Structure formats: C-alpha cells, structure tokens
# Entry
Amino acid sequence: MNIGQTIAGIEWLERIFLLPDTRPLSASDLAAANRRHDEAQISSPWFRLWQRYGVCYRPEAPVIRIPEADS
# Structure
C-alpha cells in the first residue's frame, strides 16, 4: 500500500467535496429542505404564527389546522 498515493487520493476527494453542487434541485430535494427547515424552526413562536396564518409558497396544498376545543 502506497501511503503517498493514499494521501493524494484523500486530498483529491476533499477538493471534489469542496466544489458546489450545481445540479438542479428536484421536487423531493425541495420538500426535504422544507421539512428540515420546519423542524429546525418549530420552537420559534414567530415561525408557528407564520406556519398557522402566513403565506406559504410551497407547492403542497394548504392544510387548515383547527385547534381542538377544551371540553
């Protein structure tokens, strides 16, 4: 096993992974990004207000959430 060749291979991979990904995003990529964003922001009261009453530009159909009334 050639250590120099192994190190060169690792450095090559590091350079490759530093390059930006120029592929266009697919619908599933956007949906996953939206889910990750929502999960990261869910603790924010402002985000919850936006999520409940705000304007949403996502392609999914809007969902109306009616809070359950206390009995």
